[in-house]
Amino acid sequence: TARLKQGLSKSRDKLGKSLAGVFGGAQIDEDLYEELEDVLLTSDMGVAATEHLLKEVRERVSLKGLKDPQELREALKDALVELIEPLQQPLEIPADAKPFVIMMTGVNGAGKTTSIGKLATHYQRQDKSVLLAAGDTFRAAAREQLIEWGARNNVTVISQATGDSAAVCFDAMHAAQARGTDIVLADTAGRLPTQLHLMEEIKKVKRVMQKSMDTAPHEIILVLDANIGQNAINQVIAFDDALGLTGLILTKLDGTAKGGVIAALAKTRPIPIRFIGVGEGIEDLRPFNARDYAEALLG
Ligand code: GDP
């Protein structure tokens, strides 16, 4: 958790300092609750999660007869853990789904390609065979990046010089089935939820995958840059409505003070957070753990 704490230091610095102010008073009163509300709202938790946490803290105060404002920190932490714990569902790869197909989506720059590299390494280290589908066919550079990365790390990359994303993914799945590969990681082009034709295109990619294997894609992950804060909610809703997301990866938590957004996600569209990114290194993509996260965020 030391690494996670370091990663979330920006969020904690901001939130922690403000909370120290709120909990530094002499008594638990309405003024305190109002200040707490303001602090939570400015940490990107959003209205629904903030209201929820306040109610939970009040309940804990009356249930346990708390008098000392300092005790609220633990009460808040416990309430936050309870709220975000449903999102803690690590990605399981069942042995009978072979290949296990993971489709990655998201806007440009969210961290899809980087996360694919990290995941490929993560699974290789568990002795699983991995194949990458260079499905970002809009940017030649993205394809090149994946091919180069695959060559350096001894991972097969399926790509096409011409052809659309669906065709590349279809090819990759056939190659994986023929070789008995354990996991397919499919990259796709970055897109905004407002680019309706591109949202139709990614639905087609999913349909084509289903045609080549009924149970695929087994996992549809939206990669989100934590820096976008509350906008993450709209993105999750739009991609989930279009594709039926099964998981999220929240990246760049190391560079932002918007770590509270996870509470907002839990309250509005509770899709499992499979991994969080807290840096650029391979080790910096880690499974989401609610307790560790709350500790790292609230101190
Ligand atoms: P894509 O367009 O979605 O494929 O995004 P990329 O994978 O190319 O990532 C965009 C940038 O974000 C790159 O410079 C990555 O190194 C960086 N990045 C991705 N994940 C993280 C993270 O968790 N922390 C930090 N600090 N940078 C990240």
From TrEMBL:
Top-level taxon: Bacteria
Known partners and oligomeric status: Part of the signal recognition particle protein translocation system, which is composed of SRP and FtsY. SRP is a ribonucleoprotein composed of Ffh and a 4.5S RNA molecule.
UniProt-listed Enzyme Commission number(s): 3.6.5.4
Role this protein plays: Involved in targeting and insertion of nascent membrane proteins into the cytoplasmic membrane. Acts as a receptor for the complex formed by the signal recognition particle (SRP) and the ribosome-nascent chain (RNC). Interaction with SRP-RNC leads to the transfer of the RNC complex to the Sec translocase for insertion into the membrane, the hydrolysis of GTP by both Ffh and FtsY, and the dissociation of the SRP-FtsY complex into the individual components.
Binding of GTP, residues: 106-113, 187-191, 251-254
UniProt name for this protein: Signal recognition particle receptor FtsY
Domain SRP54-type proteins GTP-binding: 272-285
Main location, first listed in the record: membrane
Gene: ftsY
Family of this protein: Belongs to the GTP-binding SRP family. FtsY subfamily.
Annotated compartments: Cell membrane; Cytoplasm
Keywords: Cell membrane, Cytoplasm, GTP-binding, Hydrolase, Membrane, Nucleotide-binding, Receptor
